[in-house]
Amino acid sequence: MNALWPIFKREFMAYFSTPLAYVFIVIFLFAMGAFTFYIGHFYENGVADLTVFFGYHPWLYLFLVPAIAMRLWAEERRTGTMELLLTLPVPLWVTVTGKYLAAWAFTGVALFLTFPIWLTVNFLGNPDNGVILASYVGSFLVAGGYLAIGACISASTNNQVIAFVVSVVVCFLFTISGAPLVLDFFRGWAPLVLVNAISSFSVLTHFTAIEAGVIDLRDLIFFFSLIALFLAANIVIVDLKKTG
Amino acid sequence: MIEIEGLTKHFGPIPAVAGIDLTVAKGEVLGFLGPNGAGKSTTMKMVTGYLAPTTGRVRICGHDVESDSIAAQRCIGYLPEGAPAYADMTPRQFLSFIAEIRGFRGEQVKAKVDAVVGKAELDLVLDQPIDTLSKGFKRRVGLAQAILHDPPVLIMDEPTDGLDPNQKHAVRALLRAMAPDKAIIISTHLLEEVEAICTRAVIIDRGRVVADGTPAELLARSRHHNAVTLALPTAQAETAKARIRMLAGVATVEDSALANGLVELTAFPKGGALLIETISALVVAEKWDVNELYAEAGRLDDVFRAITTHDADRAREARIS
């Protein structure tokens, strides 16, 4: 347990010692701006809220979060530091959690740096800051969910490209599982319970609920169980790799 | 302190380690030898808990590596193959990270890092990113990381690979100094290293122990054990060769021409008999112009080659199966 902090710290600092962090943050902020102002018509809407801005978050995360997650384990495996890390006297769950939290904190930093848009909207009008705060929490949880999925997939391969592509696909499925595209496929033959279950796995549904300004316990439970599930799978995968 | 029992590891159908039993006590420095792919690294990975064995078990200071891995890993300092380290960190940051993971805090971290930096002679590069360091320095960072917590058990996969002769000497001196109160396993390709620091040499081939003894015992199995070599002018070589072959205790005499008009004769003994006295007496009696005369303790590479299967054999076997 005492090792959680050193592992977190090392992983977190590693982002900033390579260009990765800066490239990621710049692209993240630039893309956020581009989507919000040009595609979302932030100004033309004439409404002082950030719904347009947050609406694009899950879609941007879909590509940007797997880009962060892909190196989480694949890189350790490639450079051989995995062997060093896993032979230190640290319980595996601590290592997995520490690395994950560092990556999540990093996406938190990127998200935090979008604060100028919050300043802007407050300067232009009187938005409901409670809703904005809830949306930030929701956005952070979406990033956390995708990251857990990406981390787990990164642990199962030492090829970062494969880790990226598979993560994007899995995250995509979790994003749109509430959309007609997916549900119609099941509706014809599957029992209603199953259809509802699939629909409830949608990150988008839960995020939209939070974005409306209400942080419902059910949505929190969804995100935290999604994260816990994939971290548990991550631990199992790393452990299975030990048996060769 | 290290107990290995019936250890095997299969990767799919291929046995990488096919049953190894070893016990290493405090004060022993065990040299782990074997051709590439013999299972040295795989064994070390299982001993340190990185790989789970297919069957068998490993106990470190009484702790089972699989069921009580944290306690076992606390007792181990491990230098993995290739001395991996986080390339973006400096040695100071990296060693502090290891110290913190090992449970040291605050001043203790600094003290541990300072101590180990001195031992591994890293002062000059302490604040340079590890990926800018030379191979020798990288290796020493890995070494420093392994000995930082002064572990009772040291497992080192090729600790002197990539070091220059001075650095090799320094690392060997360091290992020798630590040896009395530790159990150490080092794997190496360098046979001279075994003679320099190991109290015991184990040769493995295709996942099995094929020789286990002190370096002196292994040397005694060499055909060069107690062989006598002398160099003398070509004119005297034929007679000398014939005379030496007549001596009791001599099995064969081999000759090879040297560049400077001399011939080198090597007399191999029968059953390890001591030849140096009779041959030197003969040299004096015959008044040969010998400018070199020495007896050998043996050559480890003889032994190594004799007992490990050659690649050619292996290839042939692979074709048959």
Q: Can you describe what's shown?
A:
The complex is a heterodimer of chains A (244) and B (321). Chain A contains 15 helices and no strands. Chain A is globular, with a radius of gyration of 19 Å. Chain A starts with a helix and ends with a helix. With 244 residues, chain A is an all-alpha fold. Chain A has one domain. In chain A, helix 1 crosses helix 8 (92-112), helix 2 packs antiparallel against helix 5 (57-69) and helix 5 packs antiparallel against helix 11. Helices cover 38% and strands 27% of the residues of chain B. Chain B is of the alpha/beta class and 321 residues long. Chain B has 2 domains: 2-220, 3-Layer(aba) Sandwich (Rossmann fold); 228-296, 2-Layer Sandwich (Alpha-Beta Plaits). The A-B interface holds A 2-3, 5-7, 9-10, 13-14, 17-18, 79-81, 83-84, 86-91, 242-244 and B 9-11, 45, 48-52, 54, 69-71, 73-74, 76, 78, 80-82, 84-89, 93, 97-98, 100-103, 129, 145.
Helix content of chain B: 25-40%
Strand order of the largest sheet of chain B: 6-7-8-3-9-10
Tell me, what's the shape of chain A?
globular
Q: Major sheet of chain A, described briefly? A: none
CATH superfamily of the largest domain in chain B: P-loop containing nucleotide triphosphate hydrolases
SSE string of chain A, helices as H and strands as E: HHHHHHHHHHHHHHH
Strand fraction of chain B equals 25-35%
Percentage of residues assigned to helices of chain A:
over 70%
